[in-house]
């Protein structure tokens, strides 16, 4: 599923361009953290449990706070060394730049994402995130109607800020994304492990589409607490015309955040 790529060396990090998509080699400290999380097997400080990473899977996944106090991060973890898969979210402005039609097969899309008002407030020429351009992560779960069998988790309760930079380890690569959407209480259970089409493409290539993600629970999603992780209005190129243009604009902040993961 991986496509051919060419490599550059930038600030000591190998960067691969996959159909215009930026991906990085995983730095050693993050590799060690990834391996340690898997080796731990399960989360000890569960911030919210009872979630699944597939529509018919077990509710054995959680938002984990094992390193909330020391490293100031929250991540998704399952049991027995599992992390999460990567379902595809095509919510937002699908008619903007870079639209290649791959969101078409999705049966569950909306024209808005969770922080639409914040994006509009930036006044940067866009009204909404674009799943083809913005590598956003779906993080947190809404259940405002208290639907039976579903759970709620608001990452902001633990210091995660809207539109903050996140690190995603997938396909043996490091991708920088933003927290851009939340999971609703639909389907049969509360789910975790979802990203925009552009982020998933950077991980797994163009075979990914709105109805075809990555099912293996080996993806690590890391959110960073505090305003340190927020690029804000001027710290990211929100009106970028391509994934690579946007992701590159948050790479400096992403590098700083990943370096803070000392293990």
* E-strand count: 12
User: Given the helix and strand composition, which structural class is it?
Assistant: alpha+beta
* Largest sheet properties: 6 strands, mixed, barrel
* Number of helical stretches of at least 4 residues: 5
**What is the N-to-C order of secondary-structure elements (H for helix, E for strand)?**
EEEHEEEEHEEEEHEHH
Task: Indicate the mean pLDDT.
Answer: 91
Helix content: 10-25%
State the low-pLDDT regions, or none: 1-20
Give the DSSP E fraction (strand runs of 2 or more residues). Answer: 25-35%
Whole-number radius of gyration? 17 Å
Tell me the overall shape.
Answer: globular
Order of strands in the sheet with most strands: 7-11-8-10-9-12
Distance between the termini: 32 Å
Description of the molecule:
It is a single chain. The chain has 263 residues and is of the alpha+beta class. The protein has 5 helices and 12 strands. The strands form 2 sheets. Strands 7-11-8-10-9-12 form a 6-stranded mixed beta barrel. Strands 1-2-3 form a 3-stranded antiparallel beta sheet. A hairpin with a 2-residue loop joins strand 2 and strand 3 (21-24). The two termini are 32 Å apart. Mean pLDDT is 91; it is low at 1-20.
Helices and strands, with pairings:
Layout: E1 6-10, E2 13-18, E3 21-24, H1 28-40, E4 46-51, E5 61-64, E6 73-77, E7 84-89, H2 116-122, E8 136-141, E9 165-170, E10 173-183, E11 194-196, H3 197-204, E12 214-224, H4 243-249, H5 251-259
Parallel strand pairs: 7-11, 8-10
Antiparallel strand pairs: 1-2, 2-3, 4-5, 5-6, 6-12, 7-12, 8-11, 9-10, 9-12
């Amino acid at each position: 599923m991986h496509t051919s790529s060419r490599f550059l060396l930038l600030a000591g990090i190998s960067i691969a361009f996959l159909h215009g998509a930026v991906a990085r080699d995983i730095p050693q400290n993050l590799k060690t953290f990834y391996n340690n999380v898997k080796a731990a097997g399960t989360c000890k400080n569960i911030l919210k449990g009872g979630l699944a990473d597939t529509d018919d899977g077990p509710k054995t996944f959680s938002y984990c706070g094992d390193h909330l106090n020391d490293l100031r991060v929250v991540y998704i973890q399952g049991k027995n060394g599992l992390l999460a898969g990567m379902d595809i979210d095509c919510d937002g402005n699908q008619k903007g730049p870079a639209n290649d039609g791959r969101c078409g097969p999705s049966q569950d899309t909306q024209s808005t994402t969770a922080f639409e008002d914040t994006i509009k407030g930036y006044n940067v020429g866009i009204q909404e995130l674009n799943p083809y351009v913005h590598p956003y992560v779906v993080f947190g779960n809404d259940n405002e109607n208290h639907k039976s069998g579903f759970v709620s988790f608001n990452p902001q309760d633990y210091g995660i800020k809207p539109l903050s930079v996140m690190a995603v380890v997938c396909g043996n690569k490091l991708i920088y994304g933003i927290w851009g959407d939340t999971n609703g209480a639909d389907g049969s259970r509360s789910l975790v492990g979802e990203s925009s089409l552009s982020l998933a493409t950077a991980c797994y290539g163009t075979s990914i589409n709105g109805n075809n993600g990555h099912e293996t629970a080996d993806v690590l999603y890391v959110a960073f607490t505090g305003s340190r992780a927020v690029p804000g209005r001027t710290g990211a190129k929100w009106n970028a015309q391509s994934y690579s243009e946007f992701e590159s604009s948050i790479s400096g902040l992403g590098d700083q955040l990943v370096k803070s993961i000392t293990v």
